[in-house]
Write a structure and sequence with these properties.
The structure is a homodimer.
Chain A: H1 3-18, E1 26-32, H2 36-48, E2 53-59, H3 61-70, H4 73-76, H5 81-93, E3 96-101, H6 114-119, H7 123-134, E4 140-144, H8 148-155, H9 160-170, H10 178-199, E5 203-208, E6 211-216, E7 228-229, E8 235-236, E9 245-247, E10 255-259, E11 264-266, E12 271-273, E13 277-281, E14 284-289, H11 294-301, E15 310-315, H12 321-324, H13 332-335, E16 341-345, H14 360-365, E17 374-378, E18 385-389, E19 395-400, E20 403-404
Parallel strand pairs in A: 1-2, 1-3, 3-4
Antiparallel strand pairs in A: 5-6, 5-18, 6-10, 7-8, 9-15, 10-13, 11-12, 13-14, 15-16, 16-17, 18-19, 19-20
C-alpha cells in the first residue's frame, strides 16, 4: 500500500476542499507528533495552492500529561496568551486552519485523576473558538492521520495499512478525483438538509435499545451539511470525511435516555469512554453512566452551566462511506460520520435562522446552548429509529434500518 | 548505554543549572522533532522544580524548508505575531527558556538557493531577543540532544551511543553530581575572566595557519564566563556545556585574516560551512571564502549593516571538557566550547561596562556592534596562539599550545 501517495492525496483534499485555501491566505496546522508526515504534505499542498505562510504547531500529549499531573488547578484551564494571538492574527488575515486528529496513545491519561483530566482545557481558547466558529471567521477543516496506536485501538493490532485502507475508503481517496467527489457529496447532503428544513419538525425522536430521546428543535433550527461558507463567502468543508446533516436543537427541552452505540475516544482527555448512557430531564443530563470513563464525562459536564445540555443533533444513514467500511474507528471524526450523533455542550448559532451575532445571553434565551465544551457521541445504528415530530404531533419516519426515509 | 538515564540527567542539569528554574516560573522549551525525549524530560524536570506552566514548541525543519522553497521574499523574514507574544509574556512573567539543539538533518537546505536560505530568519524575533538578551530579561539555556543524523554528521556513522558518550563527558553527566560540578566549573571560568579583566588589554591577537587577526576591545569590555544573572538576580548558565570566557570587542577596528578550525553547522540555514576564511578591514568582513557554504555566510552578512562586523570574541583552552573529548561535534554549542571562537553580528551590551540600556545608536557609537545576526565560528586550536595587547603595545601570551598562560 502506497501510504505516501495516500498522504499526499489526503493533504491535497484537506487544502483544496477542507479549507478551500485561496492564494495569499495563511494556514495554521495543528497536529500531534504522530502526524508529522501529513503535516509536511499539508504544508507543501498549501504552498502549492498559493499559501502566503504556513505555521505548524505540534502538540505533545506527554507534555500535556505532565501538566495534568503536576500543575496547579488554575493552570489546567489557562490559555497561554500566544495561543490566542495565533488565532487572532489568523482571523485578521482571513487565514485558514487545519487540525489533524488520530491519537497514537488514546489511553494516555486513563490512569490520571479524571477530575483534573476533565478540567484540563484552555478555556479562553475555547471561548475564542466559539466566537470565531459562530462568526464564520475562519475556514477550518479536520482531517486524520493513521498511525500504529490508532490502528491498535481500532483493530486490536497495529495494522496501519488496514487503517489507511478504511480511511481512504471513508475519505474517497480511491476515487479518480477525490476533490470533485467531495464537492458532489457535500451537495447531496445539502439536498438532504433542504428536505429536512421543508418539514419544519418541532422535535426529533430517537428510539432503540436503551434509547428513547426527544430533542426539540428551535423555531429557527436550520439543517445543514458540511457545505460551509465564511462570512466573506469562502466555501469550505470542515470535516473530511463528512456524511452528516445537523442542526442546533433547543437545549431546554431535551427529555429521555440515550445509549451510545460506539466507544467514544476523547483526544483532549486521553481516555476512551465505553457504553455511555445519559438521561436528560428538562434538557439537562441528570444521569451519566459508562463502563469506562464516566468520571471524565461528568467532570466535563461540571465545567460550566451549559456543558450538561445538548448543542448539536446530527443524522447519518447507510449511504455514509464511513459507515460502509464497517469499521468502528475509535475516532470521532470518523465514527460521528458513520452514524447519527448528538453533542453535549455549545450550540452553533450559524445553524439557527436569525441567530447571527447574538450575545451569549441572547443566544441562550433563544434556546441555543453555550459552553466551552462541545463533545459529540454516537447514538445511531440499524437498531435505532429516527422520527421527526411535526407541530401537530405527527410522526414522520426519517431513518429506519439505517435507511433514509424522506 | 542507558541513554534514558543520561537524558533525565541532562534535563535536570538544564533546568537546575541552565535556567536555575525557580518555583512559580513558566518555562518555554524550543526544540526540533528529533528532541522529543529530551523535551519531555525537561518538562518533567521543570514541573519537579516547581514550574507553573511548561510550553514546548517543536520546530519542523521540513516545514521551514517548504517555506524557503515556496514563500514570497518578504515572508522569509516575517515573524508570526504569536512568536513575539510568547516571549513577551515570558518576559512579563519572568519565566525561562530552554532551547534544544542537535540537527538530525544538518544538510537539509544544502540544495536550496543560498540567498533565500540566508535571508530566511524571523527579523522581529531576532530584534526582540537582542533586547531581551541585553536587558538580561529572561533566564535562558541551550542544551543538545544526540540523535542519529547528528552522530552521522560527526562520525560518518549514526552511532548515537558514541555521540551520547562524548556529550555526557562534555556536559559532565558522568560526574557523581553534575549540578555541583557545573556550578564549580562556572566559578573557575569566572576566576579566569577576572584575571583577564585585570589585564585591561586593548586588543587580542590570534595567529596561526591562515590566521593573523587583531581584535580591539572596548574600553569597557568585560570578560565574562557563563555565570549569568538576570536583571532581578536569578543566576543561570546559558550554555551547557560552557567552557569559554568571552567579551564584546570594538567592532570598528578588527583587522586581518582568520581561518576557521572546525566545520560550522548552521542549524537555521541547514548547511555546513567548511574551511571558512574571512578577511577583515576596518572592522568589516571584506572577503569570505569556504570550500562549502560561503554563499550562505555572504547572504547572512548582507542581511543588515552590522552583520559583517564582529560581535563576540571568546577564549577556550585545553582544560575544556568538550575539547578533551577529541570530538569535532559539528555543532556550535559543543565546538565553540572546545576551542576559541569569534562571532560576526550583534554584540552583547551586558559584556561592556556602562552599556546597560543604551539605544541601538548609542550602542554602535560605543563600539558595540548591532545586527539581527550572531554567528559563532571556531578559530582556535593547538596551532593558534592568542596574545593580549596592552595599551603600551606590550604582548602578553594568553594561550600557547592550547594551554592557558595567565
Amino acid at each position: 500500500m502506497d501510504t505516501a501517495k495516500l498522504t499526499t492525496s489526503y493533504a491535497n483534499l484537506a487544502v483544496r476542499v477542507g479549507t478551500n485555501l485561496q492564494p495569499g491566505q495563511d494556514l495554521l496546522i495543528d497536529a500531534s507528533l504522530e502526524h508529522v508526515p501529513l503535516a509536511r504534505e499539508l504544508t507543501r499542498a498549501a504552498f502549492e495552492a498559493g499559501a502566503r505562510h504556513v505555521d505548524v504547531r505540534y502538540v505533545d500529549p506527554h507534555v500535556r500529561r505532565a501538566m495534568i499531573e503536576y500543575a496547579e488547578d488554575d493552570v489546567l484551564s489557562w490559555t497561554p496568551p500566544y495561543i490566542l494571538t495565533r488565532f487572532e492574527h489568523l482571523e485578521q488575515q482571513r487565514g485558514a486552519v487545519i487540525s489533524v486528529v488520530g491519537e497514537a496513545e488514546p489511553e494516555l491519561f486513563a490512569d490520571l485523576d479524571p477530575q483534573r483530566v476533565g478540567r484540563a482545557r484552555m478555556v479562553a481558547r475555547a471561548e475564542q473558538w466559539n466566537r470565531q466558529l459562530n462568526a464564520r471567521a475562519i475556514p477550518w477543516a479536520i482531517v486524520a492521520f493513521p498511525n500504529a496506536g490508532w490502528a491498535e485501538a481500532a483493530f486490536g493490532e497495529p495494522d496501519v495499512d488496514r487503517l489507511w485502507d478504511a480511511v481512504a475508503k471513508a475519505t474517497r481517496l480511491y476515487d479518480p478525483d477525490p476533490i470533485e467527489a467531495w464537492w458532489a457529496r457535500v451537495k447531496e447532503l445539502g439536498v438532504r438538509a433542504g428536505t429536512l428544513n421543508e418539514q419544519k419538525f418541532e422535535a426529533i425522536h430517537f428510539s432503540g435499545p436503551g434509547t428513547d430521546l426527544r430533542v426539540p428543535l428551535n423555531a429557527g433550527s436550520r439543517w445543514m451539511s458540511a457545505d460551509f461558507e465564511t462570512s466573506w463567502g469562502q466555501k469550505h468543508v470542515p470535516n473530511l470525511p463528512t456524511e452528516e446533516v445537523f442542526t442546533t436543537p433547543d437545549y431546554r427541552g431535551v427529555e429521555g435516555a440515550v445509549r451510545s452505540t460506539r466507544p467514544l475516544q476523547l483526544p483532549n482527555e486521553g481516555v476512551t469512554v465505553r457504553d455511555l448512557s445519559i438521561r436528560f430531564a428538562s434538557g439537562k443530563a441528570v444521569e451519566v453512566q459508562a463502563t469506562e470513563g464516566a468520571e471524565v464525562i461528568k467532570a466535563q459536564m461540571a465545567l460550566d452551566e451549559g456543558a450538561p445540555y445538548l448543542g448539536e443533533i446530527a443524522l447519518v444513514d447507510e449511504t455514509s462511506a464511513v459507515g460502509r467500511t464497517g469499521v468502528s474507528f475509535g475516532n470521532t471524526l470518523f465514527d460521528e460520520n458513520a452514524t447519527c450523533h448528538i453533542a453535549y455542550g455549545t450550540g452553533f448559532t450559524f445553524a439557527v435562522e436569525g441567530a447571527d451575532g447574538l450575545s451569549i445571553e441572547e443566544q441562550k434565551a433563544a434556546g441555543i446552548n453555550y459552553s466551552q465544551v462541545h463533545t459529540d457521541f454516537m447514538i445511531g445504528g440499524p437498531e435505532v429509529d429516527v422520527d421527526g415530530i411535526t407541530s401537530s404531533g405527527g410522526i414522520v419516519p426519517i431513518i429506519r434500518d439505517d435507511a433514509w426515509q424522506l
